[in-house]
Amino acid sequence: MLIWQAHKARVRHIAFDPGGAELATTAGGSKFVSLWHAATGAPAGRLAGHTSYARAVAYSPDGRFVVSTQNEPAARVWDRATGTVAGVLSVDWGADSAAFRADSQGVAVVTRQGVGVWRCADFAGAHPALPPAARFATHRALQRVLYSPCGRYLIANSYHWLRLFDADGRDELGALDDPHGSAAATQLAFAPDGNTLAVVFGLRVHLFAVPDGAEKRVFRGHTNYIHALGFMPDGRALVSAGADGVVRVWDAATGTQTRSFDWGIGKVCAAAVSPDGTLCAAGSENGQVIVWDVD
């Protein structure tokens, strides 16, 4: 286990690079994306250029790019090798979520006018800001967007609106709602094979079959808001973390909790699983980051 004081304010988002050797974090009112060596917690650099505080961050599956959003109408894509801006994405306002396609050829960002999609081949440096190559679900403000690892699907949601699309956004394939009430959807995660979607409704984690939307099972155990959700790479386990300060590991086939971790860092605001499944990382309300071996 490794723990360090990464920030002075709450960690907003945390992500592993595809090799699992590097972490990216955003926090508090910082305008930077901070980079860390996952094995040591030592700084690995930072991505600077936002004009407001940074929000979401994600690596492209091929490791070439990092996308980050901010609390103003522009997201940035960075060339990870050089740390320079590869492209500026013109969005209508600050966005809380961005995701790369499984083939690393495109990136999607949620906005107040739906989902915008950009082609990575169009990136032209810091200027000019690029409009999206495509836009869909334009009738509402959205909170999250996520591509399936298999490359076939995209999911987008606002609090009480959750829709599954094909990866190009041309066809809406289905809608999902809370099967046991009217709670808002707040977190999303695809299983590695793309055939299962995990959704947080309130204090519950639900698994749905993709694309038909049939409910498979429900996980219960958290006592406060769930802020992070992710599958292990083999798809057999699911990790969730939240404001109760506990990171929980679930058997995806049975819905039973198999392990839990309370590192005494207070409310967990963000969490991630390394692509090879050997490490987990979490960020706390007080700015600490913790990395531990799953085994």
UniProtKB/TrEMBL annotation:
InterPro entries: WD40/YVTN_repeat-like_dom_sf, WD40_repeat_CS, WD40_repeat_dom_sf, WD40_rpt. WD repeats lie at residues 47-88, 219-260, 268-295. Keywords: Repeat, WD repeat. PROSITE patterns: WD_REPEATS_1 (PS00678), WD_REPEATS_2 (PS50082), WD_REPEATS_REGION (PS50294). The keyword GTP-binding does not apply. Pfam families: WD40. SMART domains: WD40. PANTHER family: TRANSCRIPTION INITIATION FACTOR TFIID (PTHR19879), TRANSCRIPTION INITIATION FACTOR TFIID SUBUNIT 5 (PTHR19879:SF9). This is Uncharacterized protein. It comes from Frigoriglobus tundricola.
